[in-house]
């Protein structure tokens, strides 16, 4: 059996394949991007140009692999995409096609289609309960904020936020009179 190396195709060739194969369906983009990491990176730049669509439903299977199953209402089909993420990740939030995960006091943003990962500041004396993203973390990097409901060292619920690239979380402090 011949060992194929899809991930080693030239960028120009991948872009040519993308422009000929992909139409205006997000489901096609998921299948294309699931081939390997390099194919997934080629679709990200084009996703901004897609017309509005009915959202896809995503389910996750376990914590060692992002085994996402997307259901397209348009085609009435399921599309499967698997990405290894390693460790015991806990999924604590999502937004703009990215998931917020936490493991061993480290929070990350993970793209379930491309497998890309963006590390967030360490969770020193914080435990995240839920998190949301304000915008897409790679397309609007300077404007993306991760907002989280956290439990602090005094076991009080409060809010914290950070941007990708920050060194620390900013914790909201509430004063009572």
Write the layout of secondary structure elements.
Elements lengths: L10 H11 L4 H8 L3 H11 L9 E3 L5 E8 L4 E8 L5 E6 L2 E6 L2 E5 L6 E6 L4 E7 L12 E6 L5 E6 L7 E2 L6
Parallel strand pairs: 4-8
Antiparallel strand pairs: 1-2, 2-3, 4-5, 5-6, 6-7, 8-9, 9-10, 10-11
Helix pairs in contact: 2-3
Total count of strands? 11
Helix content: 10-25%
Which sequence of strands runs across the widest sheet? 7-6-5-4-8-9-10-11
Shape summary? elongated
Query: How many distinct folded domains?
Result: 2
Distance between the termini: 74 Å
Tell me the strand percentage band.
Answer: 35-45%
- Major beta sheet summary: 8 strands, mixed
Whole-number radius of gyration?
18 Å
Mean pLDDT: 76
Low-confidence stretches: none
InterPro entries: F-box_BR-signaling, KIB1-4_b-propeller
Pfam family, one: Beta-prop_KIB1-4
Organism: Kingdonia uniflora
Domain KIB1-4 beta-propeller: 71-172
